[in-house]
Structures are given as C-alpha cells and as structure tokens.
Design goal:
Helix content: 25-40%
Number of strands: 9
Shape: globular
Bound molecules: manganese (II) ion
Strand order of the largest sheet: 1-2-3-4-5-6-7-8
Largest sheet: 8 strands, parallel, barrel
Length: 268
C-alpha cells in the first residue's frame, strides 16, 4: 500500500517522547498589543479562563507595512500582567538575535508559521528550557512539521507544543485550511501536546468557535484564539478576532468538551 506520509521513523526523538497527560492549554489575547490600558483590560477580563496570555509585541506581517517593530516597554508591561495573574506570557520570536532581549520578559516562545523552518532559530530554542509553541508552516506536511520539531527536541528541550494553524489548499472559503486530521495524526504518533489556532486557521471570526471545538474533539490539548474589546477596531487581524465575551464562552466550552471527552474515554 502506498503511503504519502513520509519518513516519520527518522524522527526518533519525536516518537520516543512518552505519551502522557498534558494539562489543558488555553491562550488568549490580542493579535497586537496596542496599549498598556488595552492589555490590562483584556487580561483582566479573560484571566479566569486562560493558562497563557498572548499579545504581539512585534510580528511579521505579510507586508512590511504590517510590521510593528519590537515594543520592549509593552513587553515588560505584559510580563508584569502575566506575573500578577500567575499566567505564562507567550511571545513570538522572529529572529535568533532577539532571543536575549526577549528572554527576561518571556515565559513561552512562539515560533510563528513563517519561521517554522528557520533551523538556526529552532536549534537555539532547543538549547534553552522554556516552553516553545511551534506553529505549522502553511506549506508544511506532517513529516516536515515533525522535522522542525526535531530540531528543538534534539537540543534537549522537550517542553514543546505543536500548533495547527492551517495551510494552503484549493478551497477558498477561508484564508487557510485548518487540518483537523493532522491534529489526530500528531497525537497518535508523538507524545507532544498539540493545540489548535482557529483564528489564523480560518481568518474568520464566526468560524473560530466551531473549528476550535472540532480540534478539541480530534484530541487537541488546547487552543489559542485572538480576542479584543472591540474586535473591529483591532490594529491587526480584526476579521478573525473575537470579542472578550465570545472568547470566555469559547474557553469554557473548550475546557468542558475536553474534560467530557477524557472522562468518558472518547479521546485519550
Ligand atoms: Mn494574528
């Protein structure tokens, strides 16, 4: 029988990680941090429903005009908020040269999809101990995704979370096509936690809740979603950003669904 799946057996570290229970991961916040007041307000409103705060202090947009540059003061404030609420803060890292600057104010490094095969960055993240969230590049197969994960694991950092955020497809009802099957597949062949990003994965506000729940049903260990007090006024990714009320409702549904599936042994 022909398999299209590629050379998984090579990735010994990914395969050797013991399958264990992972705590549920719930990540929320704005795509871009716009002001101190904004994050104070958002984090306060979602703190009971999240484990991690997200917020872009700099990001790589599709166009250079979408690039905000690093806002170190806002990062420091975001870190203070995370300490205050006893949450982890998640920061995107674009360049190996930024790691040292970000490190004192960052609990979790996120590798965005455009950096997913930046091997020098992945290697460096493997040498440190902090949690890394690795997003799948929109072009990447499961094998390529695991190859990227292997770069981090190889350095000795097994505190790794894989994130499905959609990829290219012939379908055009969404910007990207989320792969629910890749979540189940990654869960079956690795012991790593897998989360779903239905904000970037669909690019559409009204699809974030149903697709997040679909990912949880396929075994995802959590989710990430962008939210804002006034989604239409978001500086970035407004069309996929949900309101605070919708985020809290989604988070509660996701946690409830995940618990139900585990308690009833529907997914492992
Ligand atoms: Mn975004």
């Amino acid at each position: 029988m022909k398999t299209t799946f590629g050379p998984i057996p090579k990735y010994t570290r990914v395969r050797l990680i013991n399958k264990k229970e992972h705590p549920f991961i719930s990540i929320g916040g704005p795509c871009a941090i716009e002001s101190l007041e904004q994050i104070k307000n958002i984090y306060k409103s979602i703190s009971v429903n999240v484990t991690h705060f997200r917020g872009g202090v700099f990001r790589a947009g599709t166009y250079p005009s979408d690039n905000f540059g690093l806002q170190i003061e806002l990062l420091q404030e975001m870190h203070k908020e995370a300490i205050h609420y006893q949450k982890f803060n998640v920061i995107d890292v674009l360049d190996i040269r930024d790691l040292e600057k970000l490190d004192p104010y960052t609990d979790v490094f996120q590798v965005g999809m455009r950096q997913a095969q930046n091997y020098s960055l992945l290697t460096e993240l493997g040498r440190q101990k902090k949690q890394v969230i690795l997003k799948r590049g929109s072009w990447m197969t499961a094998s390529e995704f695991l190859g990227a994960a292997e770069y981090i694991l190889k350095g000795g950092n097994e505190n790794l979370v894989l994130c499905e955020r959609g990829g290219v497809s012939h379908l055009n009802h969404c910007r990207w096509e989320l792969s629910i099957s890749i979540i189940a597949k990654l869960k079956q062949i690795t012991g790593l936690p897998v989360i779903i990003d239905a904000s970037h994965g669909t690019g559409q506000r009204e699809l974030v809740t149903p697709l997040t729940l679909a990912g949880i049903s396929a075994g995802a260990n959590g989710f990430i979603a962008e939210c804002h007090q006034e989604p239409d006024k978001s500086l970035s990714d407004s069309e996929q950003t949900i309101s605070i009320e919708d985020f809290n409702s989604l988070a509660q549904k996701a946690i409830k669904l995940s618990l139900y599936l585990k308690q009833n042994e529907i997914v492992s």
